[in-house]
């Protein structure tokens, strides 16, 4: 672990291999019960004032990539509302404490984003709690590995798309009337959008659709001065992996999936969101920023 994210080091050695022991939790998995617990940058992320005064809504902000992003945003000076699922209270409380310790307003919203009215409510609660919104991060995601297409239930296919893609669309619809020029919309796709694993058909297809939707939306919203971008992480050690996101065999070999031969930590993905939310990326829209440990993408 580096002293802070700005420290120069050998990226292959910045974090050690996770070498996860085989473990399993029902969905939604609680990050706090994982072994090892993913690194959200609690000890390392150093803010430089890049989001001072901004107001952000982050779905799946209780843990993993969304949790690390929430902490980074707060340390950059943003007020942050996070959306989590019932059952993730402990993880949400941990991130909320980090947000308020950074001296910013934090607000936690429990919602099931696969349910259309909850998307609308999450946005209106965030608007009320923060007094406005200029960053929307659609990051909540569902990933359930199924070996054969013959065993992939229609219900799962639908729920994966509801959670990953429809929620993004619905959050945008609810938030857009309130977003000023200069606002930033960021979605989370995946390496799977380009390189689908054979046992994640529904997940990978939903991630490809997120990329595509964001690129079209970026063009539609450009005249309003609203940017739309995507972060596409590679294999990152998070709660998604321990609740059937990958097979048992893939879990114990999780480090070997990336070119770096180690899994990424959520703390290493969050700076990409900071860049896309900040004014530094003013000339960046319709882009997908791949953060994947050296995996080549088209
Ligand atoms: P995570 O489990 O820590 O976060 C996912 C979050 O999604 C959960 O905390 C949960 O609050 C939320 N969520 C899921 N279903 C929901 C629902 N119905 N309603 C409300 N919230 C719901 O795992 P993560 O890996 O940090 O996932 C964050 C994003 O990163 C996801 O979109 C995931 O697909 C993407 N991603 C992860 C990896 C990886 O290797 N971990 C790689 C590429 C992309
Ligand atoms: Mg979680």
UniProtKB/TrEMBL annotation:
Signal peptide (residue range): none
Family annotation (PANTHER family): NADPH-DEPENDENT ALDEHYDE REDUCTASE 1, CHLOROPLASTIC, NADPH-DEPENDENT ALDEHYDE REDUCTASE-LIKE PROTEIN, CHLOROPLASTIC-RELATED
Sorted UniProt keywords: Oxidoreductase
InterPro entries: NAD(P)-bd_dom_sf, Sc_DH/Rdtase_CS, SDR_fam
Family indicated by similarity: Belongs to the short-chain dehydrogenases/reductases (SDR) family.
Protein name per Swiss-Prot or TrEMBL: SDR family oxidoreductase
Pfam families for the chain: adh_short_C2
Residue span of region Disordered: 1-42
């Amino acid at each position: 672990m580096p002293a802070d994210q700005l420290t120069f080091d050998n990226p292959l050695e910045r974090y050690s291999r996770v070498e996860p022991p085989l473990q399993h939790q029902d969905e939604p998995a609680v990050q706090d019960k994982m072994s090892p617990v993913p690194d959200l940058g609690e000890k390392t992320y150093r803010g430089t004032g890049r989001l001072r005064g901004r107001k952000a809504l982050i779905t799946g902000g209780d843990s993993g990539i969304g949790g690390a992003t929430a902490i980074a945003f707060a340390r950059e000076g943003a007020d942050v509302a996070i959306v989590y699922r019932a059952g993730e209270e402990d993880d949400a409380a941990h991130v909320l404490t980090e947000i308020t310790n950074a001296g910013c307003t934090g607000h936690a919203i429990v919602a099931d984003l696969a349910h259309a009215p909850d998307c609308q409510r999450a946005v209106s609660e965030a608007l009320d709690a923060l007094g406005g919104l200029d960053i929307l991060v659609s990051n909540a995601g569902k990933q359930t590995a199924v070996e054969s297409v013959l065993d992939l239930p229609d219900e799962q296919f639908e729920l994966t798309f509801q959670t990953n893609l429809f929620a993004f669309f619905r959050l945008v619809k609810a938030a857009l009337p309130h977003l000023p020029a200069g606002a930033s919309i960021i979605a989370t796709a995946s390496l799977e959008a380009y390189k689908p694993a054979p046992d994640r058909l529904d997940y990978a297809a939903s991630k490809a659709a997120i990329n595509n939707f964001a690129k079209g939306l970026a063009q539609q919203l450009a005249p309003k001065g609203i940017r739309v971008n995507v972060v596409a992480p590679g294999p990152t050690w998070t709660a998604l992996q321990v609740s059937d996101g990958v097979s048992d065999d893939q879990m114990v070999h999780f480090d070997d999936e990336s070119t770096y031969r180690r899994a990424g930590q959520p703390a290493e993905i969050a700076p990409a969101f900071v860049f896309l939310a900040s004014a530094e990326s003013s000339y960046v829209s319709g882009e997908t920023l791949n953060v994947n440990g050296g995996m080549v993408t088209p």
